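Re: [help] complex structure
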Amino acid sequence: MLDHLIPILATTMAAATPLIFAGLGELVAERSGVINLGVEGMMLIGAVAGFAAALHWGVAGGLFFGALAGVLAVLPFAFLTLSLGTNQPATGLALTIFGIGLSAFVGQFFVSQSLPGLRPLDIPLLAQIPVLGPVLFQQTWVVYLSWLAFVLVAWVLARTRWGLILRAVGESPEAAHAIGYNVTGIRYAATCFGGAMAGMAGAYLSTVYTPLWVQNMTAGRGWIAVALVVFATWRPGRLMLGAYLFGGMTILQLHAQGLGVELPSQLLAAIPYVATIVVLVLISRDRRHLLLNLPASLGKPFISH
Amino acid sequence: MQLIEARPNPSRVMRWAAPPLAILLTLVVAAILFAMLGKPPLQAFHVFFIEPLETANGWSELALKASPLILIAQGLALGFRARIYNIGAEGQLLAGAICASGVAIYTDGMDAAWILPAMVVAGAVGGGLWGAIPAWLRTRYQAQETLTTLMLTYVATYLLSWLVSSPWRDPGGTNFPQSILFSEAAMFAPLFEGLRVNTSVWITVIAVPLFWLFVSRSFAAYQLAVGGEAVAAARYAGFSASRTVWLSLVVSGAAAGIAGAAEAAGPVGQLTLSLSPGYGYAAIIVAWVGRLHPLGIVLAGLLMALIYLGGEAAQVSMQLPAAISWLFQGMLLFFLLGADAFVDYRLKRRRQAAGGKE
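Output below.
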């Protein structure tokens, strides 16, 4: 049993990594009061940009240019919603549709190419621990990077002045504005961070996880990341938990037939999406708990007078 | 950082000028894009927007594509007015196509006049049920319909994929994941000899005035609009919020389901994985560009159908990928939302901007 379990858990870590990057980025944006439904589109743009860059500069270059492309992709969204006060869900949807088109358009040049991928990086000593070693410490460095991103985001949000200002902007933009903070500027920064993280998540998929460019390769992961932020009730720790649960679901689904589950593979593949719905229902039932954590200004445009 | 301030009154001019302005801006960016790709923009526009309309076949294809887009967008617009954001029309379309195809597959070889109407009803029921799930989740558990409708689209895609690769796969065909070709009784008849446009466009032609009547005359539509504009007022007046959710999601789901049935029993003629070229998503943009107005949606639907046709033409004669139409759709929505901002806002005057804080 353990022989089965270790590879399943180890691959779960890899499958959860893009959800962690994209989810953390969206979490920060939403904490500042901006809901961006363009994650799927930004991930796709990041995936194709990252793939192109990785052909020359390896995975590190791929992740960097993926993040950069994510920022560039989110700028029209940020300008429209923050400077012009447009409807955030609709603008995010436009970004996703635009991203699907742009990535497919650029991606046509990379369809038949492939990348070598990335070797795992064993962490000395820790990698030798039974069970935990192979699961946690024989991963690629990008997985470790996702942990670092989590620690940084959690720390900045909870313990630093920046985090306090960001949360204040999300809770009460009028008050933050009255004290003299530049609400729109802070939201620009948070939204761009979301773009960078989504772009990096996409680049991870195309340069490490797959590693290929395929049209629409994110397959809804951007939307799942948005749902995870709700599931996490806007808290980074719970986001990690959610990402690993969903990562696990995608992997289990691949192993299910080996484990004796007699369901056709196409129906098993639908499980993560059904699970997202179930999880949303479970978390939304308790309206009071959700409202308690919801950034009060989420989705509402702020136009100063 | 902020360039705008509220207008004293919403601008009527901008409300009407925004869609043409957005279309114009999209064309300008498209021209730049074509020039960068080394294709002369005027020639590209000719390929995109003129060539498809030079033949009878082109007009037939335009009607064939505009029909589902308009039908779905009419349903979506009902919900959007009430701020119910059903973005999973693609899944409801597939659910409708699956149910309609079920009727066609199990009646294969029969020749009865009721088969085609039964397929349309099955499509409406399938799409309506697929829309009813998020309505139930929203009213019973308050789960956001944006995410649930979208997730159900993926579920519908995998359900379709399973059906056409196992139980409903054409036993006599190759290993390709697709159903049998429907028999004549399960197909919409062509309107003209030799052209693909078929009698299913009558459904849209009849639906548009019905939607228009419903929106402009009925009390239920008034409740929908009030529910979207002023939640508290709607509650005070005793309008049920959950009825609004059910009505918008089930009606838009059923409309998308009928469109799916018409695709399967029309141009496609069987159940396949590539049944819909993203009509469910494009219809969201059609609804917005059409100002959520039944007649505006007709114009926007025709425009979007032309973008689809142009995309296909550009693929053949200019070797551009078909996904380019998604790119233009996204840009169009971006520009429309941007132009729309100027209905309620105007640019800050320099004098005031200098005196203000930002």
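Chain A has one domain: 2-293.
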